[in-house]
């Protein structure tokens, strides 16, 4: 998403001086893709260098501590949602 080759990403919910690592669903495994229901999947080769900068203002946690892109939850198909432990309405970085 930042225009560099990566084999993984660590994302955190951030609220002031509090930081929590986002947690994938319990049965997820390395390599599972995060999806956003109702949005087309983007192939890695289609992602431009400034992609993360464009979407980062829309990344947040919900009142239920679910990681969100706008109004779409981060989901691993058939396995569940990506969440944090305690931070509500926090930015995701």
Describe this structure in words.
With 93 residues, this protein is mainly beta. It has one domain (12-92): Nucleic acid-binding proteins (OB fold (Dihydrolipoamide Acetyltransferase, E2P), Beta Barrel). The chain is 5% helix and 26% strand. The protein has one helix spanning 51-55, and strands at residues 12-15, 18-21, 34-35, 59-61, 67-69, 72-73, 75-76, 80-81, 91-92. A hairpin with a 2-residue loop joins strand 1 (12-15) and strand 2 (18-21). The longest helix is centred in the middle third of the chain and has 5 residues, at 51-55. The mean pLDDT is 85.
Gist?
The chain has 93 residues and is mostly beta strands.
Secondary-structure element pattern, one letter each? EEEHEEEEEE
- Quickly name the level 1 CATH class: Mainly Beta
Supply the helix-strand structural class.
Answer: mainly beta
Query: Which architecture would the CATH scheme give at its second level?
Result: Beta Barrel
Q: Kindly, what is the distance between the CA atoms of the first and last residues, rounded to a whole number of angstroms?
A: 12 Å
Query: Superfamily at the CATH H level?
Result: Nucleic acid-binding proteins
Beta-strand residue fraction? 25-35%
Tag the structure with descriptive keywords.
93 residues, single chain, mainly beta, 3-stranded antiparallel β-sheet, OB fold (Dihydrolipoamide Acetyltransferase, E2P), 1 helix, 26% strand
């Amino acid at each position: 998403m930042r225009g560099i080759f990566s084999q993984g990403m660590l994302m955190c919910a951030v609220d002031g001086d509090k930081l929590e690592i986002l947690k994938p669903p319990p049965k997820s495994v390395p390599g599972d893709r995060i999806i956003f229901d109702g949005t087309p999947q983007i192939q890695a080769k289609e992602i431009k260098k400034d992609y993360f900068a464009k979407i980062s203002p829309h990344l947040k946690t919900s009142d239920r501590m679910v990681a969100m892109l706008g109004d779409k939850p981060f989901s691993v198909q058939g396995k569940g949602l990506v969440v944090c432990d305690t931070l509500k309405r926090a930015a995701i970085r």
